[in-house]
Each structure stands twice: as structure tokens, then as C-alpha cells.
Fold these 2 entries.
Entry 1:
Amino acid sequence: MKWGEVRRLYPNQYVQVKIIKSNVDGNVEKVEEVAIIRSISDPKEATAELMKSRGDTLVYHTRNEKMELEIRNHPGFRGII
């Protein structure tokens, strides 16, 4: 499902999604297609689910026009650089 369609179906909500298709441009991952896992109405629950998210599953708010994720490369390990 395209992000625009998700925004139309779930206006002004947090949604838990699985990334199906994306591309990387520099340090930004631009998501093209997602699969909806569920909508989340409580912001605290959304934050908790985001903290537990791994890999290609994440929580995002539909107020965002585009689904773009900043890729961060941390050279240090546990704060040691």
C-alpha cells in the first residue's frame, strides 16, 4: 500500500507498518510501499511499540506527508568511539 493511501485511510493516527519496498538516497530511506499491521490511538502505546520495533517494522504518524527515514551510522559501540 502506498503511503498516500495509508494517510487517507488512517488520518491523523499512529500506524504500525512493515516496510515492503523502499530505496536509499544518501542517508535517507524513502519508503514506497508498506503493509499495515495496525493503527494505534494512544501516543504512549505508539512510543512503546516504536521502541520495540526492529528491522523493517516501525510506527509512524500519518500527519507526515512522506515516509522518509534518516539512516544513522554510529561508528562507536556503547558510547565508545
Note: Residues 3-69 form one domain.
Entry 2:
Amino acid sequence: MRSMRVHELSEDISVLRMDEVTLPPPGPGEVRLRLKACSVNFPDILMVQGKYQFKPELPFAPGMEGAGIVAEVGPGVTSLKVGDEVVAGLRIGGFAEEAIASAEACRPIPRGMDFVHAAAYPAAYLTAYVALVIRGNLRAGETLLVHGSTGGVGMAAVDIGKLWGATVIATSASDEKLKVVKARGADHVLNVTTGFREEVKALTGGRGADVVYDPVGGDVFDESVRCIAWNGRLLVIGFTSGRIPNISVNMPLIKGFSVIGVRAGEYGRRDPEAGRRNIEAVDRLAAEGKIVPYVCATFPLDRAVDAMRLLQERKAVGKVVITMD
């Protein structure tokens, strides 16, 4: 089968190349999947560059989450059978026609959802759910400030925020992209090119945002500290700006807010039972049609680098998906 793999770490993501690979048979508790789609996530780029906290052995295929059909089951697997259509958490290996996955990391595709959208929802919406509901304790009536709102994890946060009854202020550096977020339900949209703290204060009657969802970091984090409400929660999701910010601890002391780190996948690995509950909650929302990822583009497997560049160059809106057919 074909697989787009990394043989050397590089800032230049074009080092990916197409290989012919023969997978080993699935081991105990594993299945072999015939992949139909795999979403592209920012950590895929960081892994190619050697900058992500998880550093797989070379060579490897990026691809954290995919959707496909069970082609073979390993010893001891009773929860799945050949022919089942599933969505799978992979960590790596999704940029390929086939992948080996843990049976526990596979679950049925939500009814009514195609392979492309099934591959696009799990990581983004799990991140948003764990961040806002579990770690951020978002409550109805609160104001939620979502940075990077035009990306996959940002759009997911807008959706979860609205479902939980928050007033959502969505930010981005692109007016055109913000039109999409506004159409999907954000109450207010702000272009952060010239700053945002005064606008946030004005929209909240001077209080500031109760919860800040920040996958961007850098200057966006710094300014968020200036417009967060008393007893607010500043959720650290990532650093797509490229700069990991610092904070003087007198700021959360004086303003009474919390800075909370969010790693949804690690949360589940450290507390598997809580992780299962979180995944079940997100899957339930998907099955009920309450969350539907916005997919702006699809690319065939041999154009995986082009798909990644769309994210790297900040041209994507929502999710980008690689398809195998």
C-alpha cells in the first residue's frame, strides 16, 4: 500500500515522499484499516519538523485521525469485525492507504456522517470539549473569547461554546474567514490585526471574557491577559503563532484568573475512564447532528504536502482532509 512518510526531520515539510509499504498483520487488540480519509492537524506539521512533544521514530507517516473500513482484525478483537466503518485515533500513520490501529481507538462513524467529515471531527471537537466543558467549566451566560476561530480547533470551540449557551466572541486575522465563523453562529467577530482587548471590554460591559480559548499563543495570549474577567479561565491549547508566551504571576493574582493547560489526548491517557466519557460525549453530539465540522478542502494522498501547506500558510478555514480514493 502507499504511504506518505517522513525519512528525515526538516523545517521544509516537502521532505514527505510516497513509499510502498507492507504493513505487518494486526497484533492482539489491533485492527488493520483500509483508510478512506485522514484529517490534517497542526501537530502533523510540527512532527515533520521535530517540534512536537511526541517524537515518533523515523520513518513515519503523519496523520493523527482517520476514517475507514476494518479490513482485518487481530487476535482477541471482538468489538469490531471486517467491514465495519469506523473513525480511528492514530497519533501517526494516517497519511496512508492502510493503517494499524488499536481496536480501543476505533469507534463507529456517527450515523449520517461520511468518511471525510468523520475524519475531521474527533480531535478538534474533543479538544474543544475537554477545554471548555471539563477544564474550563464553561457555563451558560458566560462570555467565551475564541482565538484562532477560523481553524479546526477554533471552529469546534465556537460550536461547543454556542451549544453550552455562551456568548461567543471569535477572533482571526482575516475578515473573509470570519464571515464563515459568523455564519456558523458566533455572536461577535473581531479582526485581531490591530488588537482586540478594548473591543472585548466594550462587548462585555468592561468585565472582560470569562473564558479565553487560545490555540495561538504569542501576542494573542499577552493581550488576552489584559481583557479577561475576574475569576476567568485562560485555556492554553497551543502556540500556532510560533511564540510560547510568558506571564508574570502577579497578573493572575491581581485579576483572580486561572491559566489552564489543555491536552485532550493526554487527559485521556492519564485517566482512561474519563477519556472514554469525553469521547462518548463528543460522539453523541456528532450522532445527534449537533456538531458538523467545516471542511474547506480535500486533497488526494499524493498531494498531502499541499494539504499541510494550506494549514502552514494560514489559508485553511476549518478542516483540511486527505482522501484515499
Note: Residues 124-266 form a domain with the Rossmann fold fold (CATH 3.40.50.720).
